[in-house]
Amino acid sequence: MSLLRLDKFLADAGLGTRSQVKLLLKKGLVTVNGEAAKRPEEKVDPEADRIACEGVLLSCREFYYYMLNKPAGYVSATDDNTAPTVLSLLKDAPGRDLFPVGRLDKDTEGLLLVTNDGPLAHRLLSPRQHVDKTYLVKAAGTVTAGDLARLEGGIDIGEKAPTLPAKARLLAPQTDAAPQTHPLPETGGGQETSLVELTIHEGKFHQVKRMFQAIGHPVLYLKRISMGSLVLDESLAPGAFRALTGDEVASLKHF
């Protein structure tokens, strides 16, 4: 990155307008490599210089990418009057104008990409791209081979056309009273359930829930574990997030 005026760097880092950051400089709140900086025209190298405001290191990267393990109870929106949003979980994350890429239902958990890269989000969400999205589905009852075949072949969920062919794999028929390979919430009463891994290539409203409802096995619990090349980091506790690695970002951009 080439040298930048200090006031432009500070504005790009989200500290305010040029006039606002000049006030920060005048108050001596900005340091460059540990030294107070007061000249807005001073040139800095964002790659090499350590630039801070009130002790907090700054960055003026254009785009930011985060993986969030979304917990239940949060809505996938930037603003909502009825429930906390996923962005409230990233309130300390650097980056302006962050937003969730796509939506997970309020009660759905798992992988959610949060970024401010609009072009990438558009590509990932475009129906023409058919980006794979894989879910762990805990469904009521015993899902049979015939049920899996129906899911894979495309199923009528009340839209103009059936769902696109999917990939469905039975991981385990189980009861809530029995030990489980996957640590999913119990539904109580020893109810028979099935654990299915489902990969879809589109994103219709409540699609996974409607697909399982159509085969007579309502969804009891739903968790997204991958989207495209991005796989949920299982070391992230529900509600935790981390920045994507360079390789993860590069893989997503190949779509």
Walk me through the structure.
This protein is an alpha+beta fold and 255 residues long. It has 3 domains: 4-57, Roll (Structural Genomics Hypothetical 15.5 Kd Protein In mrcA-pckA Intergenic Region, Chain A); 65-127 and 230-252, Alpha-Beta Plaits (2-Layer Sandwich), CATH 3.30.70; 133-227, Alpha-L RNA-binding motif (Alpha-Beta Plaits). 19% of the residues lie in helices and 27% in strands. The protein is built from 6 helices and 15 strands. The strands form 3 sheets. Strands 7, 8, 9, 10, 11, 12, 13, 14 and 15 form a 9-stranded mixed beta sheet that branches. A 4-stranded antiparallel beta sheet has the order 3-2-5-6, with no helix packed on it. Strands 1-4 form a two-stranded antiparallel sheet. α1 crosses α2. It starts with a strand and ends with a helix. Mean pLDDT is 89; it is low at 175-182.
Can you tag this structure with a few keywords?
Alpha-Beta Plaits, elongated, 15 strands, 255 residues, nine-stranded mixed sheet, Structural Genomics Hypothetical 15.5 Kd Protein In mrcA-pckA Intergenic Region, Chain A, four-stranded antiparallel sheet
